[in-house]
Amino acid sequence: MRSSEFEALLDVSARVGADAALVQAAGGNTSIKEGGTLWIKASGLWLMQARQRDVMVPVALDALLDALERDDPSTEKAQDFVIKDRNPSGLRPSIETTVHALMPQKVVIHVHCVETIATAVQVNGETIAASRLGGIPHVFVPYARPGLPLAKAIAARIRPDTSVLVLGNHGLAVAAETVAEAELLLADVSRRLALPRRAAPDADLDALSRLAVDSSFALPEDSRIHDVATDLASCRIAAGGSLYPDHVIFLGRGSFVAAPGDTAASIEERHRAEGATVPPALLFPGKGVLVSKEITAGGLALARCLSDVLGRIGEGARLRYLTDAENAELLGWDAEKYRQELNRAGKALQ
Ligand SMILES: [Zn+2]
Fold first, then answer.
1. Is pTM beyond 0.85 here?
2. Alpha carbon of 248 to ligand 1 centroid (Å)
3. How far is it, in rounded angstroms, from Cα 218 to Cα 270?
4. Ligand 1 center to residue 221 CA distance, Å?
5. Where are the alpha helices (DSSP H) in 172-262?
6. How many angstroms does the Cα of residue 96 sit away from the middle of ligand 1?
7. How far is the CA of 122 from the centre of ligand 1 (A)?
8. Helical H segments across 114-204, by residue range
9. Tell me: the pLDDT tens digits for 302-324?
């Protein structure tokens, strides 16, 4: 029998998961601690499916926390701590399970809120967050790769009363004793961190259609995806590199900005000649974006996220891009390979 709070968490999960301003693709996760068990969203599944299928995995909380305390590498995936006889679907716990375990409150909601990310990628993100979250016990955690490094960074900063984590170059976690309180806190924090969004010019669909001729690229259905290229300030920011992990996971490293004279076909040909992977999205400055006909549902969600985040970053803002090493570790990481596989397999989800 599930508790009413567990049911309430599934409702909130489905709601939050369906809000593109909070969660994109298989990102974001929720959890509840009940009787020594941490129920956490499964890796690779979409939070918005919380009411349609089994998405929660039971994990032995104390054993996981003990292992974290001794820096046990098995906490990286938390797979060893799954309570197998209560996990009939054989799900794997989220790679961010340790974020949830380290917050002592009963309910934790972790999201890739675009308002938070737009602040959390700035060099002075911590100061901006502090100025807006007065009265809320919060901590800014500088970027660390999700998994054990992020768990360590959180453990080093969290205080007993911390209810909000602003995760540098990543997102937001809120925690409370009830599902209703957690949902209210999430709404309050994302409202406080809200930033004005620049209006982006319309895409030049005729020009984009011509640029797509004889290529494996097409116009995206979601017209907001174009904003990152039609708004030249956003396009300049995108050209600087990757800013948060799920961008790298679902779209690859950085963003491809086309040069004058480039067409999708010429870009493809150039990449193939160099033996390089063709990027899933091409930004044509002032015109819009073309996406690969093979792009995954996750790729599309993260392409939209890029427009949503960058359109909120002021032109003069100083940004902290992910370093070469940080990009590489995200792409080479075993736990993420599993998530990427599910992403490819889940292409039909769109
Ligand atoms: Zn995350």
1. yes
2. 12
3. 18
4. 26
5. 179-192, 205-211, 227-230, 232-239, 245-251
6. 7
7. 17
8. 114-120, 125-132, 148-157, 179-192
9. 999 999 999 999 999 999 999 99
The DSSP secondary-structure symbol of 340 reads H
C-alpha of residue 266 to centroid of ligand 1, in Å: 35
User: Cα(293) to centroid of ligand 1, in Å?
Assistant: 27
Domains and CATH numbers, the chain: 4-192 (3.40.225.10), 205-311+320-349 (no CATH)
Considering Cα of 60, then 66, then 69, then 73, what sign does the dihedral take?
Answer: negative
- pLDDT tens-digit map of 253-273: 999 999 999 999 999 999 999
- Report CA(50)–ligand 1 centroid distance (Å): 17
Helix axes 232-239, 297-310, angle to 10 degrees: 120
Using the mean position of ligand 1's atoms as its centre, give its distance from the Cα of residue 148 in Å.
Answer: 13
Angle, to 10 degrees, between the axis of helix 297-310 and the axis of helix 334-345? Answer: 110
Q: How far apart are CA 184 and CA 174, in angstroms?
A: 10
The strand pairing partners of 176, in sequence order, are 107
Ligand 1 ion: residues within 5 Å (CB)? 171
